[in-house]
Design goal:
CATH architecture of the largest domain: 2-Layer Sandwich
CATH superfamily of the largest domain: Histidine kinase-like ATPase, C-terminal domain
Structural class: alpha/beta
Number of strands: 12
Shape: rod-shaped
CATH topology of the largest domain: Heat Shock Protein 90
Number of domains: 4
CATH class of the largest domain: Alpha Beta
Strand content: 5-15%
Number of helices: 20
Radius of gyration: 55 Å
Helix content: 55-70%
Largest sheet: 7 strands, mixed
C-alpha cells in the first residue's frame, strides 16, 4: 500500500468512526431525554393522584363539618369551610390544567361541580342561620340528594383513579422502554469504542512490527554499505599501491635519466615517459582526493606561509610547460597583501595547480594570467581573490552550470583530445568550500576562460622574507659523523631508485627487503633514520615499526614510504610509532627535506638534550635570529597555558564545539616548538571526539606533556 492510499484510508476510517459515534451518541441522548421527560410526567401524575386524594378528603371534611353544624346548631363547625372549598377548587383547576388524559377531563369537571354543590349547601345553611337564628333544618342532613352527592364524589374520584392508573401503567412502560434503549445504545457505544481501541492497538502493534523489521533491514543495509565502503577503500588502497609502486620507479628513473647526457631522440622518449607517468599519477591523485573528501578525512591545516614564495614555486613548476607550448605566464600580486599568511598552503597549491594546468592544457596560443587581489581586510583577517585567466578554447555557456560536477568536461571530445577524468574542478570546488571560500567561472568560447575564487586567511604576526630554493644536489651534515640510513623496501626497482637518490646526496645506507631483515640490522647497527615501506611480504611496515619501538626500544626516526595514499593513512602510520609519512612516487625535494629534518646539522641547542620540544623547525625559520627565537618561545609560554585552561573549561561546561576550536588552535601554537608530531594524536582526539570522558583523559595526558614542554621552553627562552 502506498503512503498516499494509506493516508486516504486512515482519513476515511476516522470520519466514518466519528459519524458512527455521533449517531450512536445522538440516539442514546434522545432515549435518555425521553427517559427524563417520562420521569417528569410520572412525577406529575403522582402529584395529580395526591391532589385528587386531597380533593376527596377536603370535600368529605366540608360535608362532615356541615353535618356537625346542623346537628349541634353550632356555627363554629363551619368555620374554614369556605377556605377548604377554595382550596378544593384551586386543586381542581391545577389538576385540570396538568391533566393529559382526555378520559379523565369529564370526571374532573364533575368533581368540580359536586364541590360547588357542597358550597351551595353551606351557603344555604348560613342563610338559614342568619335569617332565623338557628340551624335546625335537618332536611339538609336527611336530604337524599346530599347523600347522593357524597356517594358520587367517591365514585368520581375512584373513576379518576382508575383512569389515571392505566395512564400511569402506559407511562411506566414508556419510561422502562426508553431506559432500555438508552442502555442498549450506551452498550453499543462502549463496544464500538472497545473494538476501535483494539483495532488501533492491533494497528500500532502491526506498524511497530513492520517498523522494527524495517529498522533491522536498514541496519543490515547500513552494515552492507559500510562493508561496501570498506571494500571500496581497501580496493582503492590496493590499487593505489599497485599503481604507485611501478610509477615510483618509472618517474624516479626518468628523473635520473633526464639529468644524464642523452641524444635528442632519447630525451624525447624520456620526456614522453615522464609525461605519461605524470598524467597517470594525476588521475590516481584525483580519485584518492575525492575519496578523502567523501570520507571526511580531508583536513584543512593552518600554518604560516609566504604567498609570494608559494607563487614563485608555482611559476617555477610550470615554467617548462609554458616554454614547450610557447605561452606566457604572468603573476600579479597586489602590493597591499602581506607576504606571510596563516592558512593551508598545500590545499591552495593543489587548487592553483589544478586550475593552471587546465588553463595551460586548453590554451594553444597567448598565455595565462594570474592575479591576486585584496578583497577585504579587517581584524587580522584578509580575504584574497585569485583570478586565473587564459586565452584558450573557452567553455560553452550551456556547460558552465555543470562545470564543477564530477566527470564533467566542457565538450565530449575533451577527454579524447586532452585527457583527464573530469574530477579536477569538482575537487577544486570542494577544497575551496572546505576553506570557507567560493568559486566561479566565466568564459567566452574561442576567446578564453576566467576562474576566480576567494579564500579568507589570517595575517601572520611575523612576516618572513622569501627563502631561496633549497639545493638538493648534495646532502652534507656538518659535525662528527655522516648520516647513515636504513631503506626497507621489497621492490627491487624502488631499491635501485633509492640507491641512486641517496648516493647522489652522498649518504651511506643499507637496504633490507622486509621488516624482519630490518629488525636484524637494527639489532646490530645504529642508524640515523629508517625509510620504511608499508606493504611487504612477511612482516609489513606497520608491524616492523611497532617492533622497533616495543621490542628493540629504539627511538630512531622512521619515515613511512608507501604507495597507500588513502584517507587516514598518515594517522595510521603515526599511530604505529612512525615519525612522518611520504607517499610514492617519492618527491625528491620532500624526501630531502624529511631527511634534513630528522638528521640535519646539530645545533647548540641539540646539546641541551631537550626531551619534549624540538627546535629544528624554529631554527629553520629564524635563520639564526635570536631575537625572533626569544619572541616565539615567549608566545608559546604565554599561549599554551591559556589554551589548556580554555579546553579545561570547555570540558567542565560540556562545550565540545569550544573544545574542538581550542584544540585546533593549539596545533598552530605547539608547531613552532616542534611538538606537532608528539601532540597530533591527542589534539586530533580533542578536536573530533564526542565523548566527554575520552576528551578528559586526552586533556590530562596533553597537560602532562605540555607542562614538561613549557619547562623546557622557559629554559630555552632564558638562554636566548
Amino acid at each position: 500500500m502506498t503512503q498516499k492510499r494509506f493516508i486516504y484510508l486512515i482519513t476515511a476510517a476516522f470520519f466514518t468512526g466519528t459519524l458512527l459515534i455521533v449517531y450512536i451518541h445522538f440516539n442514546a441522548s434522545r432515549n435518555i431525554s425521553n427517559l427524563i421527560n417520562g420521569n417528569a410526567k410520572l412525577l406529575r401524575e403522582l402529584n395529580l393522584g395526591k391532589g385528587l386524594g386531597e380533593v376527596e378528603r377536603d370535600i368529605i371534611w366540608v360535608e362532615s363539618r356541615i353535618r356537625a353544624a346542623i346537628a349541634t346548631d353550632d356555627t363554629s363547625h363551619i368555620e374554614g369551610v369556605n377556605r377548604k372549598i377554595e382550596e378544593v377548587e384551586h386543586l381542581l383547576d391545577t389538576i385540570e390544567s396538568a391533566n393529559v388524559d382526555p378520559a379523565a377531563v369529564k370526571y374532573i369537571d364533575r368533581l368540580g361541580f359536586l364541590a360547588r354543590e357542597k358550597l351551595k349547601a353551606k351557603n344555604k345553611l348560613m342563610h338559614e342561620f342568619f335569617e332565623h337564628g338557628r340551624m335546625d333544618d335537618t332536611s339538609l342532613i336527611a336530604n337524599p340528594r346530599a347523600r347522593e352527592i357524597s356517594n358520587e364524589i367517591s365514585q368520581v374520584t375512584k373513576a379518576i383513579y382508575d383512569s389515571r392508573q392505566s395512564y400511569l401503567t402506559m407511562l411506566s412502560g414508556d419510561i422502562e422502554a426508553d431506559g432500555k434503549k438508552a442502555q442498549q445504545w450506551n452498550i453499543v457505544l462502549i463496544v464500538i469504542v472497545v473494538l476501535a481501541a483494539g483495532a488501533v492497538l492491533l494497528f500500532i502493534i502491526s506498524r511497530y512490527g513492520k517498523q522494527s523489521a524495517l529498522i533491522v533491514r536498514l541496519d543490515a543495509s547500513e552494515k552492507k554499505v559500510r562493508e561496501t565502503a570498506q571494500i571500496k577503500e581497501n580496493f582503492l588502497a590496493n590499487m593505489s599501491h599497485e599503481i604507485r609502486t611501478p610509477l615510483n620507479a618509472m618517474l624516479g628513473f626518468t628523473n635520473l635519466l633526464k639529468v644524464r647526457q642523452l641524444d635528442s631522440q632519447s630525451h624525447q622518449f624520456v620526456t614522453a615517459i615522464q609525461s605519461a607517468g605524470e598524467n597517470l599519477m594525476s588521475i590516481v591523485n584525483d580519485i584518492l582526493d575525492l575519496s578523502k573528501i567523501e570520507a571526511g578525512m580531508m583536513r584543512i591545516e593552518t600554518s604560516a606561509f609566504s604567498i609570494r614564495g608559494l607563487f614563485h614555486s608555482i611559476q617555477t613548476l610550470f615554467s617548462e610547460k609554458i616554454k614547450e607550448k610557447s605561452l606566457s605566464l604572468s603573476i600579479d600580486i597586489d602590493k597591499t597583501i602581506p607576504d606571510t599568511l596563516v592558512g593551508d598552503p598545500v590545499r591552495l597549491t593543489q587548487i592553483l595547480v589544478n586550475l593552471i594546468e587546465n588553463a595551460i592544457k586548453f590554451t594553444d596560443k597567448g598565455g595565462v594570467t594570474i592575479r591576486i587581489k585584496n578583497s577585504e581586510r579587517a581584524d587580522g583577517q584578509i580575504t584574497l581573490v585569485f583570478i586565473i585567466n587564459d586565452t584558450g578554447i573557452g567553455i560553452d555557456p550551456k556547460k558552465l552550470p555543470d562545470i564543477f560536477e564530477r566527470f564533467q568536461q566542457a565538450e565530449d571530445s575533451i577527454t579524447r583530445r586532452y585527457g583527464g577524468t573530469g574530477l579536477g574542478l569538482s575537487i577544486v570546488k570542494k577544497l575551496v568550500e572546505l576553506q570557507h571560500g567560493s568559486i566561479g567561472v566565466t568564459s567566452i568560447p574561442g576567446k578564453g576562460t576566467e576562474f576566480h575564487f576567494t579564500i579568507p586567511y589570517r595575517i601572520s604576526t611575523q612576516q618572513y622574507t622569501l627563502q631561496q630554493p633549497q639545493d638538493i644536489t648534495a646532502f652534507k651534515r656538518e659535525g662528527s659523523t655522516p648520516v647513515h640510513l636504513l631503506v626497507v623496501d621489497d621492490n627491487r626497482m624502488n631499491q635501485e631508485l633509492m640507491r641512486h637518490l641517496l648516493a647522489q646526496w652522498e649518504l651511506s645506507f643499507d637496504v633490507a627487503g622486509d621488516g624482519a631483515a630490518a629488525l636484524e640490522l637494527l639489532r646490530t647497527k645504529k642508524y640515523d633514520l629508517v625509510l620504511m615501506d608499508i606493504q611487504m611480504p612477511g612482516m609489513d611496515g606497520y608491524t616492523a615499526a611497532q617492533s622497533i619501538r616495543q621490542q628493540l626500544h629504539l627511538d630512531t626516526p622512521i619515515i613511512a614510504m608507501t604507495a597507500h595514499a588513502m584517507a587516514g593513512e598518515r594517522e595510521k602510520c603515526l599511530s604505529y610509532g612512525m615519525n612522518d609519512y611520504i607517499s610514492k612516487p617519492v618527491n625528491e625535494s620532500i624526501l630531502h627535506e624529511l631527511i634534513l629534518k630528522f638528521t640535519g646539522t646539530p645545533t647548540e641547542e641539540a646539546g641541551l638534550e631537550y626531551q619534549f620540544i624540538n627546535l629544528g623547525y624554529l631554527k629553520s625559520i629564524s635563520k639564526g635570529n635570536r631575537s625572533y627565537e626569544k619572541k616565539a618561545s615567549a608566545q608559546f609560554i604565554e599561549m599554551v597555558p591559556e589554551e589548556l585552561l580554555l579546553m579545561t573549561q570547555a570540558i567542565v561546561q560540556d562545550d565540545l564545539p569550544s573544545l574542538a576550536r581550542a584544540a585546533h588552535n593549539m596545533k598552530t601554537s605547539v608547531s613552532i616548538m616542534g611538538l606537532t608530531e608528539r601532540l597530533q594524536r591527542l589534539l586530533d582526539l580533542l578536536e573530533y571526539t564526542n565523548d566527554k570522558n575520552i576528551a578528559a583523559q586526552a586533556l590530562q595526558e596533553l597537560s602532562v606533556i605540555c607542562r614538561s614542554a613549557l619547562d623546557e621552553a622557559r629554559h630555552f627562552h632564558e638562554r636566548c
